[in-house]
Write a structure and sequence with these properties.
With 400 residues, this protein is of the alpha/beta class. It has 3 domains: 3-160, Rossmann fold (3-Layer(aba) Sandwich), CATH 3.40.50; 163-272, Toll/interleukin-1 receptor homology (TIR) domain (Rossmann fold, 3-Layer(aba) Sandwich), CATH 3.40.50.10140; 292-396, Trna Endonuclease, Chain: A, domain 1, CATH 3.40.1350. Helix content is 40%, strand content 20%. It has helices spanning 45-62, 101-112, 127-130, 151-160, 173-189, 197-200, 207-216, 227-231, 233-244, 274-308, 340-350, 365-378, 388-396; strands at residues 8-14, 22-25, 34-40, 67-68, 87-93, 116-122, 141-143, 166-170, 193-195, 220-224, 248-252, 268-269, 313-316, 319-323, 328-333, 354-359, 381-384. Helix 12 links the parallel strand 16 (354-359) and strand 17. Helix 1 crosses helix 4 (151-160), helix 4 (151-160) packs parallel to helix 10 (274-308) and helix 10 (274-308) runs parallel beside helix 13 (388-396).
């Protein structure tokens, strides 16, 4: 089995030992291939094992092909460590003692490589005591009774990625500010990047254009339904934009007000309990973002297969490779406006093929000009997701 065919690798490790159990999954819909490594001191080994079992169940449910054997080097020297554009995520499980030397060294080495690190500990413990010092400035994730409580959020971290954890809260200030700010606190603790216009819109900005641009750049819109919000043209505009641009959309209705049209009851929460709200927001974000990515990938796949022929199209975790008689194309598919990082990754992985990024264009003209310049400088062809069919026709003819 070629380890590069995996979309996700799950490992666990006790710091200071040499044993690293490893399992791979080949068909989980991720933005890029991802490696998750659970690690803790010997005192946290039981929590590491328990969480690993829970994650195996979660990922097996997401992977039609189930688990796959790996012929790679294995251990902490996994091939993912040296593979470009692969996410390496370290999940540090704390216990009720300060971390030991081997764990501190491992975490620092991981950070020095530029990899992602997340800390986890039981509620009631002091993070500055039980987590490595390098993680003290970050928001850690806690569980109340059982470490398996955090399995859902870890799946969300792996499936969505940091760039997908951007949420826009739509509300009316007159009667929704308290709830909106409380939701922002809950989402921030869950490591989401939250937009509240009262904090971030600068004076003098063109509000309608700025709000629309902020919406397009977010993964999901959460609407606080209150009497004033239902009447607000701003909130209606934000909901309409979310629907038109196919963003994630959910509502929180805690006062029993008549709900806004266009938001299905299946994506509405009416429970005030914080744990229920957190679970609801996590599940809606994960499910809607995953569905959106799969739908866009399927749309691109169908168009390319029809215009270039199925045998010419090879699916990748975050795009496609198309071979034509005169040229090849390395295509990355993004559900939101691509940034400098995505252009760089697309360019580096393309090799001698023509690099292409399919994404949604930002709203503001100055941002579109910036992307046009970046496209010219990097020689990465950028394509708006609304032009997928026309682009597939050009690729089929080898003319893009």
């Amino acid at each position: 089995m070629d380890p590069h065919s995996f979309t996700l690798i799950l490992q666990s490790h006790v710091a200071g030992t040499t044993f690293t159990p490893c399992v791979g999954y080949g068909q989980i819909p991720l933005m890029v291939p991802t490696r998750l490594l659970l690690i803790g001191d010997a005192r946290a080994s039981a929590e590491v094992d328990r969480l690993r079992d829970a994650l195996e169940q979660e990922f097996s449910a997401l992977s039609p092909g189930g688990t796959l054997p790996c012929g790679g080097p294995g251990g902490t020297g996994c091939w993912a460590t040296r593979t470009p554009a692969t996410r390496n995520i370290l999940l540090v499980m704390a216990n009720d003692h300060p971390p030991g030397g081997p764990l501190l060294t491992f975490v620092q080495d991981w950070l020095n490589r530029g990899f992602e690190v997340f800390g986890f500990f039981k509620s009631g413990l002091k993070p500055d005591v039980v987590l490595p010092a390098a993680l003290h400035a970050q928001l850690a994730v806690t569980w109340q009774y059982d470490v398996r409580e955090v399995a859902g959020e870890i799946v969300d971290i792996a499936v969505m990625g940091l760039e997908d954890r951007r949420i826009f809260i739509s509300y009316a200030r007159a009667d929704g500010s308290v709830t909106a700010e409380h939701l922002a606190d809950i989402l921030t603790e869950l490591r989401f990047d939250v937009f509240l216009d009262r904090f971030r819109i600068p004076p003098g900005a063109d509000l309608m254009e700025r709000i629309s641009d902020e919406l397009v750049d977010k993964a999901m819109v959460v609407v606080v339904e209150t009497p004033k919000a239902v009447e607000s043209p701003w909130v209606r505009h934000e909901v309409s934009t979310a629907i038109t641009r196919r963003l994630g959309l959910a509502a929180v209705n805690l006062v029993g007000v008549t709900p806004l049209q266009g938001i299905d009851e299946m994506v509405r929460c009416r429970d005030k309990k914080d744990d229920v709200l957190a679970k609801f927001l996590l599940e809606q974000h994960r499910n809607q973002m995953s569905n959106k990515r799969q739908n866009l990938m399927q749309s691109v796949w169908r168009s390319l297969s029809r215009e270039a022929g199925r045998k010419s199209v090879r699916a990748l975790p975050d795009g496609f490779h198309v071979t034509r008689p005169s040229t090849e194309y390395a295509i990355t598919v993004q559900t939101r406006p691509a940034d400098l990082h995505r252009f760089r990754i697309t360019h580096e992985r393309a090799g001698t093929a023509t690099p292409v990024v399919i994404h949604s264009q930002p709203q503001r003209a100055d941002r579109r000009r910036d992307l046009s310049w970046l496209s010219q400088e990097s020689r990465v062809v950028q394509v708006d997701e609304g032009r997928v069919f026309l682009t597939a026709r050009e690729i089929g003819k080898g003319l893009l």
